[in-house]
Design goal:
Blueprint (H helix, E strand, L loop, with lengths): L19 E6 L15 H19 L4 E4 L9 H10 L4 E8 L11 E6 L5 H11 L8 H4 L8 H7 L7 H18 L4 E7 L2 H4 L5 E8 L3 H8 L1 H30 L3 H7 L1 H11 L22 E10 L16 E6 L2 E9 L2 H13 L6 E6 L2 E3 L1 H10 L1
Parallel strand pairs: 1-2, 1-3, 3-6, 4-5
Antiparallel strand pairs: 4-6, 7-9, 7-10, 8-9, 10-11
Helix pairs in contact: 1-9, 6-9, 8-9, 10-11
């Protein structure tokens, strides 16, 4: 799915309507999360998550709501993302509460995070706090390939992989913050970026919402109240509703096309749709790539993806004239353009800086194994087999 108004906007699903949302109540069970004087994060997030889902089900019956948990139970971070991925969710919303170190009771306000590079120390600290949930998991070193939630370097590496859904994630996050500020009267701490494991592993636009600070007495009282929880859940629902409405309105022109019109106006996309209807869909499409200039003998190749288009554009087009070693592959219903081909993540990361300086600020690293696009998790599994 794609927003027609954005070249870099791609949703996980191949349709043009939002039909499935996964709502994730942060923490749970043995993992209490942030703790206030009278509250535990796990209880507030569950209450708000269930209320949010109920609003969606009542007001938008065409949307399927899936919860990562509906009771006070512990759910591993990778399992939460797995639930969203296996159900082909269109959006993933993770709900949390914040906290400040002991002695700081003044800070308050709501903020919404998307996956990305932290811009300041406070954003990094929020990610560290939420990612610390893996310390409650068994075999976390194996599952997360030795990821250390307290290592600054680990977050730099984590942010390199996610970027494909950043545009939509930011749109949804902006909607959430607007609703919190204008409809609920909360202090708006803005849309932020940081490295969250639960967002990193999702394959669709995803946001992580921090409802407020449990270390602030006034905010804790508000979030503990039934009215406060209902207000916050209603705000999240309205943000989701507006996002869905905007997305489907922008895609309406394609939805209304007849097969004949699609064949004329978007011939390559239409041809791919017809082909997929005649065969069993695979996990990923076979990328149609040209031989890379480097790493030609390697089974694993790292490239820098910089742009996405609904229709295929020739690599000889003038807009790609200055792009080093441009390439294109078809994936999830759209054409994706890459630059370079490298045998190590380090080389690709360095090349990413070059592409970003050329105006593609959202460029990110993608991985191929024997010509097929794979995720960082799949790469980890391949490396373990060696």
């Amino acid at each position: 799915m794609l927003f027609l108004s954005s070249n870099t906007s791609v949703l996980a699903q191949k349709g043009m309507q939002i039909r499935t949302v996964v709502i994730d109540a942060g923490h749970g069970g043995k993992d209490s999360g942030a703790v206030g004087k009278r509250s535990k994060e796990k209880n507030i997030t569950l209450a708000v998550a269930l209320k949010t889902g109920k609003y969606i089900q009542e007001k938008l019956p065409d949307v399927k709501v899936i919860y990562t948990r509906q009771t006070d139970k512990f759910v591993e971070l990778n399992r939460r993302a797995e639930i969203a991925n296996k159900n082909n969710a269109d959006l993933f919303i993770s709900i949390h509460c914040n906290a400040m170190p002991k002695g700081n009771t003044a800070t308050y306000g709501a903020e919404t995070f998307v996956m990305g590079e932290h811009k300041n120390k406070s954003n990094l600290e929020v990610a560290m706090l939420e990612n610390a949930a893996i310390l409650y998991e068994e075999n976390s070193d194996t599952v997360y390939d030795g990821f250390n939630p307290n290592s600054t370097e680990a977050y730099i590496a984590l942010s390199l992989f996610q970027g494909e859904y950043k545009t939509q994630s930011i749109r949804l996050a902006q909607n959430v913050q607007e609703q919190f500020a204008k409809r609920v009267g909360r202090v708006d701490r803005g849309v932020q970026q940081a490295g969250f494991l639960v967002l990193h592993r999702t394959m669709m636009p995803s946001v992580l919402i921090e409802l407020g600070f449990l270390t602030n007495a006034s905010e804790e009282t508000f979030l503990l109240s039934d009215d406060g929880q209902s207000f916050m859940a209603s705000a999240i629902f309205r943000a989701f509703r507006d996002f869905k409405k905007e997305f489907e309105r922008e895609n309406a022109p394609l939805l209304e096309l007849t097969d004949k019109e699609k064949a004329i106006l978007v011939p390559e996309t239409y041809a791919e749709e017809q082909k997929k209807q005649q065969q069993q869909p695979s996990k990923t499409e076979q990328p149609k790539t040209t031989p890379p200039t480097t790493a030609t003998q390697s089974d694993v190749v790292f490239k820098v993806q910089f742009e996405t288009k609904p229709q295929k554009i020739a690599l000889t087009d003038t807009r790609y004239k200055k792009i080093p070693n441009p390439d294109v592959y078809y994936h999830n219903g759209v054409y994706k353009y890459t630059s370079g081909a490298f045998d190590t993540m380090e080389k690709a990361t360095e090349h990413r800086k070059t592409i970003q300086k050329m105006g593609y600020s959202d460029a990110f690293v993608v991985i191929f194994h024997k010509g097929n696009r794979i995720t960082s998790d799949e790469l980890e599994q391949l490396q373990k087999k060696k």
